[in-house]
Design a protein that fits this description.
The complex is a heterodimer. By secondary structure, chain A is mostly helical. In chain A, 63% of the residues lie in helices and 0% in strands. In chain A, α1 crosses α2 and α1 packs across α4. Chain B is 35% helix and 22% strand. Chain B has a five-stranded mixed β-sheet with strand order 11-12-13-14-17. In chain B, strands 2-1-10-9 form a four-stranded mixed β-sheet, sandwiched between helices. In chain B, strands 4-3-5-6 form a four-stranded parallel β-sheet, with helices on both faces. In chain B, a hairpin with a 6-residue loop joins β13 and β14. Chain B is globular, with a radius of gyration of 25 Å. The chains are: A mainly alpha, B alpha/beta.
């Protein structure tokens, strides 16, 4: 279920929930969230996918694309 | 299943001890009156209390009774002692049973544990690795440990540093075991090093002796708030913070109390879990910086509050940063349906340089606000009642210092000030640090030969009670995290257009009462596109390093004010910034919250460049 397209869709939805004013995101777009928003984003993704995102995945996710890749690898 | 913990597996895979430890210890209560931390754990291990670790779903992942903590710490200590008495061991202080085992194993082996931050921001891998590496080097660690989740990051950070052992608990179990433990730590030996400044430019590891920390713990739990045999703690505070490590981890061992832990990251994601745990396990004591109460209040819905019962919570400690009464009021109102009693708020004041606590407000008194004339405070430093229509400032009563402390409020020339006069807070007493590790210069700056510590804070006293009004030292505190302006400035000055002393970082009040980071940058560039690019690069670099949004203010050369000796003055730069932007009602703008604001602001800044030039001319004149 965790193919690239569905991961991207979920991350977009989660971003939308955390930061409703944000526009569409390209893969190399920086997430640019403050620390509180970043934690909310991770929670939204965890709850939508019923996974737990390890700290290393979090640490490596500078951009939208990197976050999606990190989550995709968890599902493997 | 104990083996699973020893191997350092993630918490959620641990299946032992499905019951949390009891609240009653079954042994007579002792309130921190021990000579050393090992004596405190030896005693607590005779009872039935301990640490309980809850996961991000609010389920008990592991229980670690003090009896078991002691057994495992002693067994591991036999393997650690070859590292050499008094040597430092760096510990990534993630909320996990393995950290507790390792910390106390260091105690029994008479080693000096050095808890290091386990906080990473989104995409912050390289900044975190660099940070870890610098602190492991700074404390001259002979070994470095991390719970499983962080061990990959630690190994990368340790790289080729000359360490005798690096890894998770299992790696330390591979060291050779000695038959006997070394002689127990003495009162004058160091109990731990705690980094108060995680600044990579100016690391400051406070050296705290066994007798200093025990003296503070006894003072806290007998005079700060008298601990009772039916008290139970709940905490999400990080183990690398003085309040979390000393107040909770060491405090609970020293008073034989059970504690329910939630990892800081899990709290930040799901703050409601904190309240749910208190409600469910009938906790009586829980501490948080003000922003923790604010965060929880923001996320609690009415129906959540109605499902909770917080009536057991008798001490809701609040400290570690300036206390905003409004945040506490909002929390109390949001949680009134859960029977939270605002009188439980216990404001306190302290810092890692004196182990943890200096003063506590009266128990069950809630937070009391002293309203003073803001104008007179600003002009003459007098904290006096406001005239009828005057603008007021409110400060929270942080209570009387614990016995053993001498406190003085001094003016800039060092003369003691009377009551209701605002000045620099100095203190002396048995729980003050021995100094900053390996940093005699920084030590001399804050600690006099006769034992007086300059706290770096500003405040005044009324009838013995302390009121904190601000900071004399340059420091940004954003969401409870200390960020040193030197680090932001140094990072900014790596940009090719900028030279050293071209930047000044400070914080200003944000819309929600918290702090917003500001970086004023002077540069020769006048092209709007080039300025926009510089601002964007700076914003990204600061975000990548610190995980915060920073307002970038671009100004022409010679704008930044200097002191008479030619040094840049951050406080003057801040004052000028606020004056420059007064028309925009700076403090009303929700800058920190608005995504993309910085890029937009950079453009606006450059468009207003010509008006800034006028200011610059004035500022230049003033500075000469």
């Amino acid at each position: 279920m965790k193919d690239r397209a569905s991961v991207e869709r979920v991350v977009r939805e989660a971003l939308q929930a955390v930061r409703p004013e944000g526009g569409p995101l390209e893969a190399d777009a920086e997430l640019g969230l403050d620390s509180t928003q970043a934690m909310e984003l991770i929670m939204e993704i965890e709850e939508r996918l019923d996974i737990s995102i390890p700290v290393e995945t979090f640490a490596d996710a500078r951009t939208f694309g990197e976050l999606c890749s990190g989550i995709e690898r968890l599902g493997a | 299943m104990e083996r699973a913990v020893a191997r350092g597996e993630p918490l959620r895979e641990i299946e032992n001890n499905k019951q949390p430890t009891a609240t009653a210890s079954g042994i007579p209560l002792r309130r921190g009156n021990f000579r050393t931390l090992t004596e405190a754990l030896d005693y607590a291990a005779q009872g039935s209390t301990g640490f309980n670790f809850y996961d991000g779903k609010g389920e008990l992942a592991a229980a670690l009774p003090y009896r078991e903590l002691r057994e495992r710490a002693v067994a591991l200590a036999r393997r650690l002692q070859s590292l050499g008495r008094g040597s430092r061991v760096a510990l990534v202080a993630h909320t996990h049973p393995d950290f507790a085992v390792m910390f106390f194993a260091c105690q029994y082996a008479a080693l000096v544990p050095v808890p290091l931050a386990a906080a990473i921001h989104l995409g912050g891998r390289s900044a975190y690795i660099r940070h870890l590496r610098e602190l492991v080097s700074d404390c001259g660690a002979v070994a470095a440990f991390a719970p499983a989740d962080f061990v990959g990051l630690l190994r990368e950070a340790a790289g080729d540093l000359p360490l005798k052992c690096v890894g998770a608990l299992e790696d330390f179990h591979a060291l050779e075991a000695h038959d006997e433990l070394p002689a127990p730590p003495r009162g004058e030996e160091l109990a731990y090093l705690q980094y108060t400044s995680g600044s990579t430019r100016f690391p400051r590891g406070t050296m705290i002796t066994q007798s200093a920390v025990m003296s503070n713990l006894e003072g806290i739990f007998t005079h700060g708030f008298e601990i009772q045999a039916d008290d139970r703690f709940c905490s999400w505070l990080p183990y690398y913070h003085d309040m979390g490590l000393v107040g909770i981890v060491l405090g609970c061992v020293s008073t034989q109390r059970s504690v329910d832990y939630l990892a800081t990251r899990d709290f930040a994601m799901r703050p409601r879990l904190w309240l749910k745990l208190i409600s469910q396990n009938r906790a009586t004591i829980s501490f948080s910086p003000p922003f923790g109460y604010a965060l929880a209040a923001r996320r609690v819905r009415i129906k959540d509050a109605e499902a909770l019962d917080l009536s057991s919570w008798r001490v809701a400690g609040v400290g570690a940063e300036m206390i905003h009464p409004e945040w506490l009021r909002t929390f109390a109102e949001s949680l009134a349906p859960a029977r939270f009693d605002a009188r439980a708020f216990l404001p306190c004041y302290g810092m890692a340089e004196c182990s943890l606590a200096v003063s506590f407000a009266p128990v069950s008194g809630g937070f009391a606000v002293d309203r003073v004339d803001a104008e007179r405070l600003a002009t003459s430093g007098e904290a006096v009642a406001a005239a009828d229509a005057g603008k007021t400032a409110g400060f929270v009563n942080c209570g009387e210092p614990l016995p053993g402390y001498e406190v003085e409020i001094r003016d800039e020339s060092g003369r003691p000030l009377p009551d209701r006069r605002c000045g620099r807070i100095y203190l002396r007493g048995p729980s003050v640090m021995s100094g900053y590790f390996g940093n005699a210069k920084a030590t001399r700056e804050v600690l006099s030969a006769d034992g007086w510590l300059f706290t770096g804070d500003l405040g005044y006293r009324v009838d013995g009670s302390l009121y904190i009004t601000g900071r004399a030292k340059d420091l940004l505190i954003i969401n409870g995290r200390n960020i040193w302006p030197q680090d932001i400035e140094h990072l900014a000055e790596q940009q090719p257009e900028l030279r050293a002393t071209d930047t000044s970082a400070f914080s200003i009040p944000g819309a929600d009462g918290g702090e917003v980071a500001v970086l004023v940058v002077q540069c020769r560039e006048t092209d709007a596109a080039a300025l926009g690019s510089l601002a964007e690069r700076l914003r990204r670099a600061i975000y990548a390093e610190f995980g915060i949004e920073c307002l970038i203010d671009l100004v022409p050369p010679h704008t930044l004010p200097r002191t008479s000796s030619g040094k840049l003055s951050r406080s003057s730069a801040r004052k000028q910034f606020l004056e420059r932007h007064r028309a925009e009602r700076v403090t009303d703008l929700p800058w920190a919250r608005e995504a993309g604001y910085a890029a937009e602001h950079a453009v606006r800044s450059s468009m207003r460049f010509s008006t800034h030039r006028e200011d610059a001319r004035d500022a230049g004149l003033n500075a000469q």
